[in-house]
Amino acid sequence: MGEMKRIGILTSGGDCAGLNAIIRAVVCRAAGGYGWKVMGIRQATQGLMSDPPQIMTLEPDKVDHLLTMGGTILGTTNKGDPFAFPMPDGTVRDRSEDIIAGYRQLGLDAIIGIGGDGSLAILRRIAQQGDLNLVAIPKTIDNDIGITENSIGFDTAVNIATEALDRLHFTAASHSRVMILEVMGRDAGHIAISAGIAGGADVVLIPEIAYTLENVCQQIQERQSQGKNYCLIVVSEAVCTPDGETVTNTNALGQCRLGGIGEHLADQISACIGAETRVTVLGHTQRGGIPSPLDRLTASAFGVAAVELIAEGLYDRMVTWQNRQVVSVPIAEAISYYRAVDPNGTLVKTARGLGICLGD
Ligand code: F6P
Fold it and tell me: In this predicted structure, what is the pLDDT of residue 80?
């Protein structure tokens, strides 16, 4: 069975469907297979910063239900950079050494960090600083971590956006309306273009391709001239206005978030051609709920592969999905390669071939 190890696992950054399925797979392989002790770190690195560290012991007979459960039982955060951590008195402090101390206090041999590129960059910096044994697993509904074909959460988000289009289709046709679906994805239009193709959208606007209002309105009118009285538009949250402005909103806590391009577009279309428009903003529904079978499968494969890396003593590496299998790459390489939608790639060509207007 080999040497007994103690490993930690944490989820960091925005949640998504499939995180719990990863936790389950790690526990099955590490605790169930190798007989190691697995400690779940609560609330990302904040659990390690606390003294004593905030953890939950994860055992194989208690994780079966995690395969289909959304969110993360460990909790997570996409705020509070540990290198400039906001303190209650309003100051910021570098808490990286507290995290390293937490790792040592728990007697960990290695830690599995699940995150997007931002979280993984922070985790890696801490691991380098404290000589910690880190293995990374990519997750993000945005699917913008360049080196892996699949990030956990993306497929579920596409399923949810596609289902929304399927539903909007009928109500759009019934009322002869232009229906706009605003989806997440930050600076990458992967969710929008994937769901747009799968859900039969007529217009897909993504941050990678600049659009004009005239082109969008022309598509609507062309459809009308063919007797098609409605139009389905998918717009990605970071699409700029034709003036080049990103649409955001700021809440009472002063947090600025992407959102609102759908409403902006609706107003512009109505003003331009008098079409009746309605907007649906999917928001965090794209991150919640039951993970799709593909996300469960990828999560399971990534979880097992991450444990095998630790068993082989291979650290500072991220598991990735490439050419139908899981391989590992250096974390530094993985996070240095950002993947936006390729304007000349297969999905864009497919969309154009189907007659979907991309706004350009
Ligand atoms: O990065 C994942 C993501 O869901 C983005 O698509 C979105 O812009 C952002 O996080 C939302 O963040 P928050 O949960 O802080 O509102």
Answer: 87
CATH number of 156-286+343-353: 3.40.50.460
Ligand 1 centroid, distance to 185 Cα (angstroms): 7
Q: Quick: pLDDT tens for 118-176.
A: 999 999 999 999 999 999 999 999 999 999 999 999 999 999 999 999 999 999 999 99
Classify burial at 330, counting beta carbons within 10 Å of its beta carbon; exposed 0-12, middle 13-18, buried 19 or more.
Answer: middle
Nearest atom in ligand 1 to the alpha carbon of residue 257 is 16
Render pLDDT for 224-270 as a digit per residue (tens, 0 to 9). 999 999 999 999 999 999 889 999 999 999 999 999 999 999 999 99
- The reply to whether omega before 60 is within 30° of 0 (cis) is no
Cβ of residue 142 lying under 6 Å from some atom of ligand 1:
yes
For the chain, what are the domain ranges? Answer: 6-152+289-322, 156-286+343-353
Answer whether 153 contacts ligand 1 (Cβ < 6 A). Answer: no
Measure the CA–CA gap between 337 and 352, rounded to whole angstroms. Answer: 26
Residue 261's nearest CA partner among 273, 274, 275, 243 is 243
Does the domain at residues 6-152+289-322 carry the CATH identifier 3.30.360.10?
A: no
Pocket test for ligand 1, best of 142, 187, 256 (most atoms within 8 A of CB): 142
